[in-house]
């Protein structure tokens, strides 16, 4: 982003939240976007087109907030129906499980600095992050593997249904309550399984069952 942010035809608005796509009254052509910033509503008009790229969950939400979606659901929430479409009907959350945790007993000095979030949040690592390097640039998932299980519903051999993610750490990495709240981990599980691993260099595997996953061939 830093290579293109100075272009005169690019304007970046941070801390902004799109709430509605605007349309022409006489047809279904998108003309702009309404968004909030600093607790105030703003409107941006498009000269050519509106590109909607808000992610798997926020994209259908934004469409439905704009009147495009299942008519019965929109009417129930008092949203004017512009187009009755099955928006969001194929959005599935994927179930998953945490796989085995691996204890790394002979790590390098740099690897040993990844024992906890407190050890990573240092001035040196923050400066590395600003330059686009270091562990803070990772979401902790370092490799992915897609496989087709014997229980896959789709007969297409190129359509896997299980995703295996390999992480450079485990849940013990964050000794605060943030992770356990985000994943709704029971206190007993945290106390008996993860707390003993605080300060221990670990890695782990996560497995997710994918309901709608396509690979680019």
From TrEMBL:
<dbReference type="InterPro" id="IPR000172">
    <property type="entry name" value="GMC_OxRdtase_N"/>
</dbReference>
<dbReference type="GO" id="GO:0016614">
    <property type="term" value="F:oxidoreductase activity, acting on CH-OH group of donors"/>
</dbReference>
<comment type="similarity">
    <text>Belongs to the GMC oxidoreductase family.</text>
</comment>
<feature type="domain" description="Glucose-methanol-choline oxidoreductase N-terminal">
    <location>
        <begin position="55"/>
        <end position="69"/>
    </location>
</feature>
<dbReference type="InterPro" id="IPR036188">
    <property type="entry name" value="FAD/NAD-bd_sf"/>
</dbReference>
<dbReference type="Pfam" id="PF00732">
    <property type="entry name" value="GMC_oxred_N"/>
</dbReference>
<protein>
    <recommendedName>
        <fullName>Glucose-methanol-choline oxidoreductase N-terminal domain-containing protein</fullName>
    </recommendedName>
</protein>
<dbReference type="GO" id="GO:0050660">
    <property type="term" value="F:flavin adenine dinucleotide binding"/>
</dbReference>
<dbReference type="InterPro" id="IPR012132">
    <property type="entry name" value="GMC_OxRdtase"/>
</dbReference>
